[in-house]
Amino acid sequence: MPQIQLKKIHKSFQDKRILNDMNLSIEEGEMISLLGPSGCGKTTTLKIIAGLVEPDQGDILINNQSVLNIPVEKRGAVIVFQDYLLFPHLTVEGNIEFGLKMAKVDKKIRKEKVKEMLSLMELDGQQYKYPNELSGGQRQRVALARALAVEPKVLLLDEPFSNLDLRLRETMREFVCSVQRKLKITTILVTHDKDEALMTSDKIAIMLEGEIKQYGTPLELYKKPISEEVANFFGETNYIIGKVEDGIFKSPLGNFRTTLQNTVKLKAMIRPEEIEVVSVYQETNTKGIITRSRYAGDRMYYMISLKGMEIKSISIAKEIFDVGEEVSLRIDSKNMVFYEV
Ligand SMILES: Nc1ncnc2c1ncn2[C@@H]1O[C@H](COP(=O)(O)OP(=O)(O)OP(=O)(O)O)[C@@H](O)[C@H]1O
């Protein structure tokens, strides 16, 4: 039984539909990402789970019980916002124990919890500082400590790394993942960064225009996107039109064995990194001419012209080919995803 279930959630603001029949199930202890472009309704979804926004229709179940009528402080879901919203006039300790004080938790237990959180978040010795005396990463860890101090069932993270510089973002991402695994707390991370979603999550829900278009493991979403819009959101693509005849996909890229039924027209999607550029002397069933070549240290970015098409490839920079050179392309049809035209 999933720990969190969103069932047929609808939400509009001033007649503008933000969430449209949204369904989502999250298992206990999972870390999932809600991934989508700005404005697609990710934050609204978190707020609905936390109880800060009411849906127009639909239900939210936590541990199989509807929480629609349960107030924010009793739902067991806390949000950590992008800008952390720490109380500037309270010390680190004051911030961390805030929720416990509101819940009238005994002082001795509060102090113990603060100590535990300071240690978990590697903030030992920082308890008497004020937020403006902390670094960005420390502020974020205080915000997390404050959220986790009340022992929520669900942790909701709204773009938690977007205010941090690139290096700190990576460190904090690892840190949050390790805390999540240690506590095994069900976590929903909102992000518009596909790499972040791929690297941190057990599952990713891709949200476009207020709907979840696909929900699955990072590997499923990247390798087997169910539609072109999901494929495009997830990275670079090549599309090739062809047809299937007697178990062969016939296309300008060559003929590839497939288990698909005969079709007059079919579109294959293949990621640039699944197209390997090799020497023209190597036998493959596709050849082309390099029209652009970019060196990126460990990788090469190529554009290859063949039969009036431009194909993108990202290859390991073992052998480097120049513009104008004829090359062979090595493609495995296992890595093609087919869509109806
Ligand atoms: N209280 C509100 N009143 C009116 N419109 C709102 C309200 N909250 C959100 N919206 C609108 O709903 C849409 C979705 O907002 P939301 O914050 O959920 O998107 P998001 O996917 O989290 O985007 P971002 O990544 O930019 O935060 C936006 O167009 C936003 O302007």
From TrEMBL:
Catalytic activity, EC: 7.6.2.9
SMART domains membership: AAA
Entry-linked PROSITE patterns: ABC_TRANSPORTER_1, ABC_TRANSPORTER_2
Record lineage: Bacteria, Bacillati, Bacillota, Clostridia, Peptostreptococcales
Protein name: ABC-type quaternary amine transporter
Superkingdom of source: Bacteria
Keywords from the named record: ATP-binding, Nucleotide-binding, Transport
UniProt GO MF annotations: ABC-type quaternary ammonium compound transporting activity; ATP binding; ATP hydrolysis activity
Statement: the UniProt record of this protein carries the keyword Nucleotide-binding: yes
InterPro entries per record: AAA+_ATPase, ABC_SmlMolc_Importer, ABC_transporter-like_ATP-bd, ABC_transporter-like_CS, Mo/tungstate-bd_C_term_dom, P-loop_NTPase, Transp-assoc_OB_typ2
Pfam families per the UniProt record, alphabetical: ABC_tran, TOBE_2
An example Gene Ontology CC term for this record: ATP-binding cassette (ABC) transporter complex
Domain ABC transporter, chain residue ranges per copy: 4-234
